[in-house]
Amino acid sequence: MGCCSSDDMKDVVKEKYGKIAVTQDMGCGCGCGCSDDSGMDYSVFQEGYDGIAGYVPEADLHLGCGLPTEYAGIKEGDTVIDLGSGAGNDCFIASRIVGSDGEVIGVDMTPQMIERAKANVEKLGYSNVKFRLGEIENLPITANKADVIISNCVINLVPDKYAAFREMMRVLKPGGHFCISDVVTEGVIPEVLLEQAELYAGCVAGALPVEIYLDTIRQNGFKNIEVKKKKRIDLPEALLTEFLSPDQFNAYKNSGVGLFSITLTAEKPSCLCGCK
Question: Model pTM greater than 0.85?
Fold first, then answer.
């Protein structure tokens, strides 16, 4: 599926995120499609942050597909890690919740994005937010550090998702949990439609079927996995009818098959030694 191999994915993401960070291109969406087609419509992914305490519009590059802080259960004094933190939008929301006794650490693999996030911290005067350059499969974080991990439309772009969830398990404290918003697929989507969806909207490359996504989480030892929110990503009918026959179009629309953004939580067991 798609136009990018897994080996090329990181380079594509770094290049696009770097351009977004430097040009401050607000509204370019996930920034993760493999095509440079300027006609991409990323609005199908986005959810509004209006009215959320700590929201900083200049740190919102519209790169997400959900509101992970909405279900993250962050508490005052927590240590929160944001994977793929971008310009710091979700970090700043979390920082208001954890307070002066807590800590928020944003990790991003794009140097330009880290620079922009640090500039936002300096401008806003937050003392409990830090940003680190690093990759999700090899986090620059010590083991058993975080009470909560959040991430917004990033894990689908990681070539080795098993390694990503393994790292989350490592850095979470026993009994800690994550809350992730991400893009997944459900059912068998026609190959031609997947390719066109990727060109149309981006953030499709690397998306796993939801069953495989959830199984990858289970394989890493997480418990109490729960999908808190699910939103269908509606592709325009003009795109569907261009590449599907009338019968295929009707079957697709009525099948429940498609692209979805989900927000889910899962917990690291309090005891990893097999005790009850």
Answer: no
